[in-house]
Design goal:
With 493 residues, the chain is of the alpha/beta class. It is built from 16 helices and 24 strands. The protein has a seven-stranded mixed β-sheet with strand order 14-17-18-13-12-20-21, with helices on both faces. Strands 9-8-7-10-11-23 form a six-stranded mixed β-sheet, with helices on both faces. Strand 3 and strand 4 form a beta hairpin. The longest helix has 25 residues. It is globular. The termini are far apart. The structure holds nicotinamide-adenine-dinucleotide (NAD). Nicotinamide-adenine-dinucleotide binds next to helix 8 and helix 9. This is Aldehyde dehydrogenase family protein. Keywords: Oxidoreductase. Its EC number is 1.2.1.-. One of its GO terms (molecular function) is oxidoreductase activity.
């Protein structure tokens, strides 16, 4: 399968890949390395340096030093660097899409068609926004001349999960850089490849040393010292709700501001007047996109009783026709899950769900793909049963959904709002007034109408409750999250 890789990707993967600290490719001070595994085959594709506390210290000190000059640049000078980076990313989009597909196991068509181009758009969005942004305002007060001055924080730390390495990097790091901060990034240990490749391209376009630093490694070895480092001024964490709580508590000890983007268990409510083909397309897509490893996707499908059987017939046919294969293969529609551990976890949920009394609507689970025996493939599975079932309540993070019939709007809303997660839900109906009403009552950061997984720059995206706190991504507000307010005042007379 690696015959499909372009020469740039092959060259990049051919040598052990060091950490990127202070503009220099550096081996870990601890001398450790980690193997990057292709989930489509279970085989090693690269060796990457695995960092420790000393590496984090070097990275944060470098970022702190670089902050003095990076923050002193005019916004348009920083935007110029970011636009150069966007051009470079564009010229290497194929390589990035291949590396992302190889690393995560995601279908190349998705990496190439969405992840990479949408991520690059983000660079330009924040570069443009930073030039016209509001870096302060005058306050109209009695007897005091006063203003608010907005300044960057300094070193911002980022800790990422493995499902959308490139997009999450862009969505979170670009606003911080555009606002004048410098960054230390800890990618997920499973999927560091595109993040490191971005460093190579950032170096090539001349982004100054120390502005972007990447330390790959385990959560406790790298993530924790990054949070605890006295010169780290804020943290953005994307990952599971469980780890997110620990991160919040560590940030609270310092204390430093902390943005959490966490797990989800999104619902889709399909009324009996909905465009059924569209609902089927959207919801089958919701669990096959990135093999269902999407925080905001719909995995609780609430279907009106009048159309339940029809919906099931259509959606099962659609899911059965999904082409499962290696991520890097352009014919693949759904790749494997990211790791053996993730495969075990997704299958474990299936077995627990059945033990608790769920019934299979579509039998899926572990599946072999010809010629790729070692890959971590899971065919889509659908269950139905009680909303008390573990598979209705917990985030499975695989190609699985749980169906429940409902009678009316109130019952559907009760089901949607029965969990502590609050990331994204959707409603499907021809009655747009009803859609708007239901959308407002679903307790989450995002409600989508007649679609699921809707993203655009300028459309704020974030979670509430167990799904996140402290801001979101993809909007002007995200940019301002990376500026701190300073009030400057002079009493008059
Ligand atoms: P995870 O929480 O296990 O790990 C996320 C990151 O935290 C990794 O880089 C990991 O190394 C690091 N980490 C783990 N323990 C740590 C510690 N003690 N100190 C510091 N860092 C630590 O999540 P995952 O399995 O990589 O990703 C899947 C989860 O991410 C899902 O729950 C998914 O919903 C969520 N997610 C949320 C969003 C969003 O925007 N809300 C986006 C993508 C993924």
């Amino acid at each position: 399968m690696h015959d499909l890789l372009c020469s740039q990707a092959k060259t990049f993967l051919s040598q052990p890949i060091p950490l990127f600290i202070n503009g220099t490719w550096t081996n870990s001070q601890g001398g450790k390395t980690t193997d990057v595994i292709d989930p489509s085959s279970g085989l090693k594709v690269a060796t990457v340096a695995s960092g420790n506390e000393q590496d984090v210290d070097m990275a944060v000190v470098a970022a702190d030093k670089a902050f003095k000059t990076w923050s002193a640049l005019a916004p348009k000078e920083r935007a110029h660097y970011l636009n150069l980076l966007a051009d470079k990313l564009e010229s290497e989009a194929q390589t990035l899409a291949q590396l992302e597909a190889l690393d995560v196991g995601k279908a190349f068509v998705n990496a190439d068609g969405f992840d990479i181009p949408f991520g690059i758009e983000c660079v330009r969005y924040y570069a443009d926004l930073s030039v016209t942004a509001d870096y302060g305002k005058t306050l109209e007060l009695k007897d005091i001349e006063a203003r608010v001055h907005r300044a960057p924080y300094g070193v911002c730390g980022f800790i990422f999960p493995w499902n959308f390495p490139f997009d999450l990097l862009m969505w979170n790091v670009m606003p911080a850089l555009a606002a004048g901060n410098t960054v230390v990034i800890k990618p997920a240990e499973l999927t560091p490849l595109t993040t490191l490749y971005v460093c190579k391209l950032a170096e090539e376009v001349g982004i100054p040393a120390g502005v972007i630093n990447v330390v790959v490694g385990a959560g406790r070895a790298v993530g924790t010292p990054l949070i605890e480092h006295p010169k780290t001024r804020r943290i953005s964490f994307t990952g599971s709700s469980g780890v997110g709580k620990q991160i919040a508590s560590m940030c609270g000890q310092r204390p430093i501001p902390c943005k959490l983007e966490l797990g989800g268990k999104g619902a889709a409510v399909v009324f009996d007047d909905a465009d059924l083909d569209n609902a089927v397309e959207q919801l089958a897509g919701a669990i096959t996109l990135n093999t269902g490893q999407v925080c905001c996707t719909a995995t609780r499908w609430l279907i009106h009783e009048n159309i339940y059987d029809q919906f099931v017939e259509k959606v099962t046919a659609k899911l059965k026709s999904t082409i499962i294969g290696p991520g890097i293969d352009p014919k693949t529609e759904m790749g494997p899950v990211v790791s053996q551990a993730q495969q075990d976890s997704v299958l474990d949920y299936l077995s627990k769900g059945l033990t608790e009394g769920a019934v299979e609507v579509l039998a899926g689970g572990k599946v072999a793909v010809d010629g790729h025996d070692g890959g971590y493939y899971v065919a889509p599975y659908l269950l139905t049963g009680s909303p008390e079932n573990i598979c209705f309540k917990e985030e499975i993070f695989g190609p699985a959904a749980f169906l429940v019939k409902f009678k009316d709007e109130e019952e559907a809303l009760d089901l949607v709002n029965s969990l502590e997660y609050g990331l994204a839900n959707s409603v499907f109906s021809a009655d747009l007034a009803r859609c708007g009403r239901v959308a407002e009552k679903m307790i989450a950061g995002n409600s989508w109408i007649n679609a699921h997984n809707v993203f655009a720059y300028g459309l704020p995206y974030g979670g509430i409750n167990m799904s996140g706190v402290g801001g979101g991504v993809n909007s002007p507000e995200t940019f301002y999250d990376y500026l701190r307010d300073l009030t400057i005042a002079r009493p008059l007379g």
